[in-house]
Amino acid sequence: MPSHSETRIVPYTADCMFAIVADVEKYPEFLPWVLGTRTVHRESDTVFHSEMRVGFAGIEERYTSRVVLDPTERTIDVALLEGPFRRLENHWRFKPRGDVCLVDFSIAFEFESIVLNAIAGKTFGHVFLRMADAFEAQAKAMSNQLA
Q1: Is the model's pTM score more than 0.70?
Q2: Distance between CA atoms of 86 and 143, rounded to whole angstroms?
Q3: Considering Cα of 61, then 31, then 3, then 44, what sign does the dihedral take?
């Protein structure tokens, strides 16, 4: 099963990075391969179900996840509710370090389809790095707008 974890230091605050990752509805504006998102159910201000439509290599899929935000601890946990996966979960941790932030991210997933697993296995590293870079670029764009 593909999985990845990474720790990065980024030149943005933990609150800024948390806000960008927590704002799932804006993902189609800056994340590659994310074609659409929508909140389908809200349990509370910090827990919601989000449907995401993604496309890659001519394949388009939808899935729904439960997203749990903890603004005080600056954590985000995402778990699959339904979709083309057997398993999907990711975890974000944003740790302030002065004017910079330590970002801990982990993801693990397994598609139901053997074909999708094969495609994902070959491209996973590239896809993850592009998406991680896109979050950082979004933080830079937002900080430039505020300057």
Answers
A1: yes
A2: 38
A3: negative
User: CA 28 to CA 67: how far, in whole Å?
Assistant: 17
Name residue 65's amino acid: S
How is the beta sheet containing 47-56 ordered, strand by strand? 3-10, 100-111, 85-97, 75-82, 59-70, 47-56, 34-42
Domain range summary for the chain, segments of one domain joined by +: 3-146
State pLDDT tens for residues 137-147: 999 998 877 65
CATH class of 3-146: alpha beta
